Write a sequence for this structure.
């Protein structure tokens, strides 16, 4: 399996949904950076289950413990090991998934590939795994804030067919995102989205959604053409999130409808240097970030596990009907912004360290 991500700032997540704990090992964080559990907990709190009536009722505190790599409140460059205990498992809810494959989930694919799996709560394929990513992402975020003042935000822009109105991605604030349980900074749209999630839940069904992200003040010059372009690294990172089905940077698929005269970002120059009059590209040209905001979005499918009866087959190939009993998110997009932010931070921190290594600069100063 592939559980490791990154080149210099490298993370390895570990653990299963219903094991005793899960976590992450972060390698390559420069020494001397102040780091406490509180720095990490805030991001974990935004991802954790059981946080509102619109998410899964599985109630996990997701308290992080730093086991290594930090001495007297500062990173030492040795591996940072983070542990999060699982507390609220109800493995019996998943007993029938030992023998019945959930349509839309990873059960069949894991069995076909590996032949043996921990079926409880989806085991390793459960999005519990993303808690490790979010914990590691909080460290990457801190590194980037210190390096260049980068600010990474993600929010829900669509649930089903309910869309947020036109938003200036740079005007979106953390407060506006966290002001409602949907995490949509457009309050009117958030209310309609909440109703759509509630309707799906009542129908024992699920609904998809879109998460937008904006990275202000990204480190200029990062990105390693030709294969490790900024957008290529972000696309891989975002599409590694469970249930993600689409990625766009800048105008994304809308660019196909535009003329060059419309899409090209006019180049300006003044005493403070080069800049752009618009940002249709989403902050990258030739795979290199130029310092303008990196903006994009990630599409999430409707949750696979639903209470409605669905046709499936058993491990032995017998036809069966499955109506899931476990606790599930009716819309995974609502808990995904913290994961999208974490993956963006991990990509940027790694590309920043790679760019500095190329220039022969090591460490934080
Ligand atoms: C934050 C988050 C929460 C999720 N919660 C659930 C859930 O409660 N039930 C479920 O079936 N899938 C959930 N998923 C999605 C599954 O993990 C995912 O569909 C599964 O691993 C199969 O992968 P795939 O959809 O990418 O093919 C969640 C995903 C994320 C990002």
């Amino acid at each position: 399996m592939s559980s490791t991500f990154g080149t210099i700032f490298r993370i390895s997540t570990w653990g299963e949904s219903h094991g005793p704990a899960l976590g992450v090992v972060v390698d390559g964080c420069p020494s001397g950076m102040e780091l406490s559990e509180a720095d990490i907990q805030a991001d974990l709190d935004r991802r954790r289950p059981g946080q509102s009536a619109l998410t899964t009722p599985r109630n996990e505190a997701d308290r992080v413990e730093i086991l290594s790599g930090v001495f007297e409140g500062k990173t030492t460059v040795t591996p940072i090991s983070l542990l999060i205990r699982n507390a609220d498992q109800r493995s019996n809810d998943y007993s029938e998934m030992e023998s019945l494959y959930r349509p839309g989930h990873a059960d069949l694919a894991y069995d076909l590939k590996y032949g043996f799996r921990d079926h409880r709560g989806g085991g390793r394929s459960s999005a519990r795994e993303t808690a490790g990513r979010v914990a590691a992402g909080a460290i990457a975020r801190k590194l980037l804030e210190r390096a260049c003042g980068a600010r990474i935000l993600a929010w829900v822009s669509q649930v089903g067919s309910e869309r947020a109105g036109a938003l200036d991605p740079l005007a979106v604030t953390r407060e506006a995102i966290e002001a409602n349980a949907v995490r949509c900074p457009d309050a009117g749209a958030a209310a309609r989205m909440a109703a759509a999630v509630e309707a799906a839940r009542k129908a024992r069904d699920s609904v998809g959604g879109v998460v937008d992200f904006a990275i202000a003040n990204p480190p200029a010059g990062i990105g390693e053409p030709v294969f490790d372009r900024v957008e290529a690294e972000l696309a891989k990172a975002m599409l590694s999130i469970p249930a993600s089905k689409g990625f766009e940077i800048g105008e994304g698929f809308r660019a196909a409808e535009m003329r060059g005269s419309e899409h090209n970002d006019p180049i300006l120059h003044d005493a403070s240097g080069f800049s752009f009059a618009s940002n249709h590209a989403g902050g990258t040209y030739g795979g290199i970030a130029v310092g303008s905001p990196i903006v994009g979005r990630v599409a999430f499918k409707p949750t696979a596990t639903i209470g409605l009866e669905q046709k499936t087959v058993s491990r032995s190939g017998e036809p069966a009907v499955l109506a899931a009993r476990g606790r599930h998110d009716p819309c995974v997009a609502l808990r995904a912004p913290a994961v999208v932010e974490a993956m963006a931070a991990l990509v940027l921190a790694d590309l920043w360290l790679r760019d500095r290594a190329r220039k022969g600069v090591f460490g934080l100063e």
Remarks:
- The radius of gyration is 21 Å.
- The chain has a mean pLDDT of 95.
- The longest helix spans residues 337-358.
- Residues 56, 105-106, 125-127, 130, 241-243, 301, 303-305, 328-329, 332, 335-336, 339 surround flavin mononucleotide (CB under 6 Å).
